[in-house]
Design brief:
Layout: H1 6-14, H2 24-32, H3 37-58, H4 63-76, H5 83-94, H6 100-113, H7 123-134, H8 139-147, H9 152-172, H10 178-191, H11 197-208, H12 215-230, E1 234-237, H13 250-254, H14 256-262, H15 270-275, H16 278-289, E2 294-295, H17 304-316, E3 321-325, H18 340-354, E4 368-372, H19 390-397, H20 412-439
Parallel strand pairs: 1-2, 1-3, 3-4
Length: about 450
């Protein structure tokens, strides 16, 4: 905790700036520390930050609005000494009341904002405020350069900031509207994913451009940046049920000749055939061969809370959700275990379709892709689906959902049909997802 006086921090977390002066514990604490300079300094900071939060967040009519404003406040204070004070007061005073989805959104945004790339915090704000053309005439900048004229690290970072600012000004300043500006900003970040310039571009976009955009546009930008950072072009959902069997897992028997046409036989053990969904491995291999990077959680084992947190993050940071659907997924797991496939579907639907900036966006529905790993006449009917999964099953049935014919014996025509499902249906949908993301900017 940043505050050296936990009782003081707790009081400001539990009470508004207007009400805290009436709290007897606060009055007594202040009296006991009346001559403590450190206490008085931190009390003043807490009061200032809490008052700012009360004005910005307490009057928001929805938790979603509160979360948006909280992230904006963090961005505005990202390079100030008060950033951690804002972060911790939000985390303790407001965040606990928010729904899980809003908490996750805030946490992800805060993690990104806490990354500091530049060692000289004045540089990016100065270039953002004045631009490359005018920066040489700004007294604060001239003094900063004079103060660090013999500092090689400063000179290198100043050159980097100038180069980044110049590139963005040429790219974004002439755009006809904010929608086009956001589009080009996202493309620039996508092109620099995994490169050293990524964070420099991101910081400059935040400081110079993002504040002018609408709240929906800012939230949309934040979400897309998370997918760019993750590199997840798809999330692959599958089931390993039924659990261990004495023979090959049914899905592996059903698609054996397709599996072995993609995965080398010397990479598959008898234990793999018995325990793992090798069709999922095959699909992941095919997508990887197309240079797609995806979220693929091979084994849902360990602490349920951590597994669910990882899956939630994966769904929220992937452009496309692909689910290999089998009949067994629509039966309640034994021992009241979590049905991870249903959980993944629900989280993907929430993050991609329902909780879109500005409200639910049915256009994003196309980014949920279902491939039925059953024969067309053998897929489970609605009358046999466990009640908690009825809506999920209905959502699958209303979409275009290719069936994979079984290839348990060698059949060249069927092998070709299964392969074409991926080459002509799945791969193009993953490839077009980035365009859909860009076309969806509010």
């Amino acid at each position: 905790m940043i505050c050296d006086f936990p009782d003081l921090f707790r009081l400001f977390s539990d009470n508004s700036a207007d009400d805290i002066g009436k709290i007897q514990n606060y009055i007594d604490l202040c009296a006991n520390n009346a001559t403590n300079t450190q206490f008085q300094l931190q009390r003043g900071i807490l009061e200032q930050v809490r008052r700012s939060l009360d004005a910005a967040l307490a009057q928001q009519p929805t938790y979603k609005g509160q979360t948006r404003r909280a992230v904006i406040l963090l961005e505005q204070n990202r390079r100030t000494a008060h950033f951690e004070w804002y972060y911790e007061l939000i985390a303790f005073a407001f965040r606990p009341r928010w729904p899980e989805a809003q908490q996750e959104y805030f946490d992800r945004a805060a993690r990104g904002l806490r990354k500091v790339i530049c060692d000289f915090p004045e540089l990016i704000p100065l270039f953002a405020a004045h631009g490359v053309r005018n920066i040489g005439g700004v007294a604060e900048y001239v003094e900063l350069c004079r103060r660090h004229e013999n500092n090689r690290q400063f000179q290198e970072q100043r050159n980097t900031v100038e180069r980044i600012a110049n590139a963005l000004e040429e790219l974004l300043d002439g755009q006809p509207n904010y929608q086009r500006q956001i589009r080009e900003a996202l493309i620039k970040l996508e092109k620099n994913r995994g490169l050293a310039d990524f964070e420099w571009y991101y910081d400059m976009i935040l400081q110079k451009y993002k504040r002018s955009w609408s709240e929906d546009q800012q939230e949309y930008f934040d979400r897309v940046v998370r997918t760019i950072r993750s590199g997840n072009e798809f999330f692959l959902s599958f089931t390993s049920r039924p659990p261990d069997t004495t023979t090959d897992k049914p899905v592996n028997r059903r698609y054996w000749y397709f599996i072995r046409s993609v995965i080398r036989m010397d990479n598959i053990t008898k234990e793999d055939r018995r325990k793992r969904n090798l069709l999922a491995d095959t699909v992941y291999t095919l997508l990887s061969d197309e240079s797609f990077h995806g979220f693929y959680y091979k084994a849902h084992e360990g602490d349920n809370r951590q597994v669910m947190a990882d899956l939630t993050e994966g769904c929220a940071t992937s452009r496309v959700f692909i689910q290999l659907v089998q009949n067994v997924m629509f039966q309640v797991p034994p021992d009241a275990a979590v049905n991870y496939c249903e959980f993944e579907y629900r989280k993907a639907n929430e993050s991609i379709v329902i909780d879109s900036p500005g409200g639910p966006n049915p256009d994003n529905d196309e980014r949920l892709i279902f491939v039925i790993a059953e024969e067309e006449g053998g897929f489970i009917g609605a009358d046999r689906v466990s009640e908690p999964y009825s809506a999920w099953h209905a959502d699958i049935m209303r979409k275009d959902h290719p069936y994979l014919p079984k290839v348990d014996i060698y059949d060249a025509a069927r092998l070709s049909q299964v392969r074409e499902t991926f080459d002509k249906i799945i791969v193009p949908q993953v490839r077009s997802a980035w365009k859909k993301v860009l076309d969806g900017i509010p």
